[in-house]
Design a protein that fits this description.
Blueprint (H helix, E strand, L loop, with lengths): L1 H11 L13 H20 L6 H23 L5 H28 L1 H7 L18 H5 L11 H12 L3 E2 L2 E2 L7 H8 L5 H16 L3 H8 L4 H19 L10 H14 L7 H8 L42 H20 L2
Antiparallel strand pairs: 1-2
This protein binds 2-acetamido-2-deoxy-beta-D-glucopyranose.
The site of 2-acetamido-2-deoxy-beta-D-glucopyranose has 6 residues, from loops.
């Protein structure tokens, strides 16, 4: 492994011209790599102002990159030039995340302590290839409840993580209650409520609580809740693109949808049109995601927010948006993983 890494690092310093065979996906791959490198350039230059949101997106991206590297190493058709760029990205990303951690902690120690497990290591998620049928999507009615109770939701996440306190005592990890399950499975939800319901069933897997929670859930497993939610979320994403493009104010949510369902293997979210569309979203000069209009859609919602803190936007260097840029980074790494599997 060490020698392989060394060879790769050496290789990165050598011009890569002509080493990539031309395949149908090459340009999409190249564009995804360029966009990911551009975003990482931005984050690595401004790591001291990355917040929890931004770091979460970077950690999901890190997991996707590591998966992409695993796939590429085992695949004879995956060119060395791609493997070396993926590896260089992963190395630089690891450093950026480590450097950002103390700043994130300093910004909000209590919050950091509670949610540390979601940002202190790469997210490795099981990618189970799933395609939704037309009937499944057809049968969904988009819900109306878009108000997320952040405090209640945070408590449910903390119960899973083992950081929830009751009467001055921490209760054991992987704790679930009926109230939490009801909240996270309630029907008729939309927008950030659906994505945060899904996130609950994702966090649970990444912190290895799946089995314990399934004992509590009875006959319906975690994967089936994930599927129901991604079917809903897909229908919402389709609606968001129905005008041929996604409205400026909807881009953040759109990326969150693609990232959360895509990393679970819901490949409907990884259609070429959507990949191409989102790759055009970053600012061409800075590589990051910025509000297109000056009057930010986020002003006013940051303090008294209905949403989990994970959604709180923060402006970084050059007017870049931390949450959207972090989600964008994770999403582009997901594309790299997906494209590597199909190379
Ligand atoms: C979760 O914690 C509550 C206390 O808040 C406890 O009564 C309950 O038994 C725990 N549930 C599980 C499944 O561990």
């Amino acid at each position: 492994m060490i020698t392989k890494l060394l060879i790769i690092i050496l290789h990165v310093c050598i011009p890569l011209v002509g080493t990539t065979p031309s395949t149908g996906d090459q340009s999409l791959f190249e564009r995804s790599l360029d966009a990911t490198e551009g975003l990482l350039e931005f984050f690595s230059a401004d790591y001291s102002s990355i917040n929890v949101d931004g770091l979460f997106g970077l950690r999901v991206g890190e997991g996707q990159l590591l998966d992409a590297i695993d796939v590429c190493e085992k695949k004879p058709t995956c060119p060395f030039s791609i493997l070396s760029r993926l590896t260089a990205l992963a190395v630089k990303l690891g450093t950026t995340c480590e450097r950002a951690l103390p700043y994130v902690e300093q910004a909000d120690p209590a919050y950091y302590e509670r949610f540390m497990q979601t940002i202190d290591a790469p997210y490795r998620l099981p990618y189970r290839v799933t395609t939704l049928s037309d009937d499944e999507v057809e049968s969904v009615t988009i819900g109306k409840n878009s108000l997320y109770d952040e405090d209640k939701g945070d408590a449910c996440y903390a119960r899973l993580l083992g950081t929830y306190e009751e009467g001055g005592c921490r209760i054991g990890k992987c704790n679930v209650t009926k109230n939490c399950v009801d909240m996270m499975t309630s029907k008729g939800t939309s927008r950030y409520v659906t994505t945060h319901q899904l996130l609950y069933f994702i966090v649970m897997e990444t912190v290895k609580c799946r089995e314990k929670v399934e004992e509590f859930l009875g006959d319906k497993g975690v994967a089936s809740f994930q599927k129901d939610l991604c079917t809903n979320i897909y229908k919402e994403a389709l609606e968001a693109t129905s005008g041929g493009k996604v409205m400026e104010s909807e881009k953040d949510l759109f990326l969150e949808r693609v990232l959360l369902c895509g990393t679970l293997g819901y490949e409907d979210f990884l259609k070429e049109d959507w990949i191409k569309m989102t790759l055009q979203w970053p600012d061409s000069r800075t590589g990051c995601f910025k509000p297109r209009y000056h009057s930010s859609i986020f002003t006013g919602r940051s303090e008294r927010s209905n949403m989990r803190k994970l959604l709180r936007e923060k402006t970084m260097k050059d007017g870049c948006l931390s949450h959207t840029s972090g989600l964008g980074f994770g999403t582009f790494c997901l594309y790299l993983h997906h494209l590597t599997m199909n190379i």
